[in-house]
Structure formats: C-alpha cells, structure tokens
Amino acid sequence: MRSLGQVSVMMLLVVLSARAFADPDMLQDVCVADLTSKVKVNGFVCKEASNISASDFFFDGLAKPGLTNNTQGSLVTAANVEKIPGLNTLGVSLSRIDYAPGGLNPPHTHPRATEIIFVLEGELDVGFITTANVLISQHIKKGEIFVFPRGLVHFQKNNGKEPAAVIAAFNSQLPGTQSIATTLFAASPTVPDDVLTKAFQIGTKEVEKIKSKLAPKK
Ligand SMILES: *[C@@H]1O[C@H](CO)[C@@H](O)[C@H](O)[C@H]1NC(C)=O
Ligand SMILES: *[C@@H]1O[C@H](CO)[C@@H](O)[C@H](O)[C@H]1NC(C)=O
C-alpha cells in the first residue's frame, strides 16, 4: 500500500508542479531557504549554493501516524518549506493528516493553494463549500482521491470505526491555513463580541462560551 501511495503522490506532484499557478514561478534551479535570515522577501532568501546538501530536500516526518488524542481527534503534520528548506520557490508541499475514529479536521481554508488528498487508510466524509454556498461532499476510502479548490472552506471527518490517514498535496510551498472557528473565536487580540453576536445572530454569553472553549491552551 505504501508504494501505491508513494507512486500516487509523485504523480500528484508532477501534475501540480506542471500547473503551479498558486506560487510565483522560480528564477533559478534551487533557492534553498535560509530559515534563519532576518531578511524578508516573498518566500525565503536563498542559502549560499556551496552550503546546500541533500538534507535540505529530505524529511521523514510523515512516515509515522501523528498523535490524534486532542479535542478534534485529528492531527495535520506539514511537510512544507518550514520543514524542507529546499521547497523554497518550488511551489509544492505535502501534509499527512491522521484521524481518530470520530475525528474531525475542522472547516478551514488554504489561502495560497489547491489541495488534493489521497486516502492512505480508512474512510472519510469530506466536503468543500463554493462561493455560491453549495456544499460539494463525498465519502472516500483507502486509495481514493478528493480535491479542495484553492481558498474554499473544506473539512474531513472520520465517521468510521478505524483510524484514517491521508496524504495531502498542495501547489504552494506554504499553503497557509485559516481554521474558521479558531480564526473567529480565538484570534489575538480577540474579535469583538458585538461583531460575532451580530454575525452569528447569538448572544454575548454564547460567544464567550465558544471563545473560552477554543482559547489556546496555556
Ligand atoms: C552553512 O550552514 C551552516 C549550518 O546551517 C551555517 O552555520 C553556516 O553559517 C553556513 N555557511 C554559509 C557560508 O552560509
Ligand atoms: C497524547 O498521547 C501522548 C502519547 O501517548 C501523550 O504523551 C500526550 O500527553 C497525550 N496528549 C493529550 C492531550 O492527552
């Protein structure tokens, strides 16, 4: 199964890199990120070419399932430019997402990338919502693929009895994530209650309750 997964992911990457319109195009072979540089550019500045090695293009952090014993019952492990400096300017990245039975990857968006997932194990109910407010949803299982278009709100839920896992590919070195609930109810400084009471047509008490539940754990 692993090899089927790997082959599929490589195919996805080829497709995505041939059509990597989300990140700007590269102007040199490689621009391995100097993650320590204080200089800010659109992406990361390049390391000295003499200082590049295979380790800049390597990451083994998706080999094992992530721990899903948290309130949502899911964990996203990113393999983006922050983990793989060699991805800088290349316009692609991956994540692994693990789901406990009942686990949810809550509604969120990636402002800089389309996402395509490949189910490694288990089954998921997935969906995204268009700007016309139409829900496009599907039940997917091991070996199957689903796509979440760039910028649209989407989610995955494991309604099965077994753990589930996917590999997600993105046409950005750093797709960015805005999780709707935490963006609105756990921002810092906080979004004013009167914005949230009016937007959601609920009272201040309900807003405060949600805020306290989603507050970052200290
Ligand atoms: C090369 O990389 C090492 C380790 O990251 C760093 O300490 C050193 O300053 C780098 N040298 C150059 C010339 O960039
Ligand atoms: C999750 O499990 C790990 C390993 O079993 C443990 O170290 C960690 O404290 C647990 N986290 C929570 C939030 O229970």
Report the uncertain regions.
none
* Anisotropy-based shape: globular
**CATH topology type of the largest domain:** Jelly Rolls
Structural class: alpha+beta
Tell me the β content. Answer: 25-35%
* Helix count, DSSP H or I runs of 4 or more residues: 4
Give the H and E element order: HEEEEEEEEEEHHH
**Overall CATH architecture of the largest domain:** Sandwich
Task: Tell me the span between the first and last alpha carbons.
Answer: 40 Å
Task: Calculate Rg over CA atoms.
Answer: 19 Å
Subcellular location: Secreted, Extracellular space, Apoplast
Domain Cupin type-1: 60-208
Protein name: Germin-like protein
Signal peptide: 1-22
Can you lay out the helices and strands and say which pair or pack?
Elements: H1 2-18, E1 74-79, E2 93-99, E3 104-109, E4 115-121, E5 123-129, E6 135-141, E7 145-148, E8 153-157, E9 164-170, E10 178-179, H2 180-185, H3 193-200, H4 204-214
Antiparallel strand pairs: 1-2, 2-9, 3-8, 3-10, 4-7, 4-9, 5-6, 5-8
The site of one 2-acetamido-2-deoxy-beta-D-glucopyranose (NAG) has 3 residues, from loops.
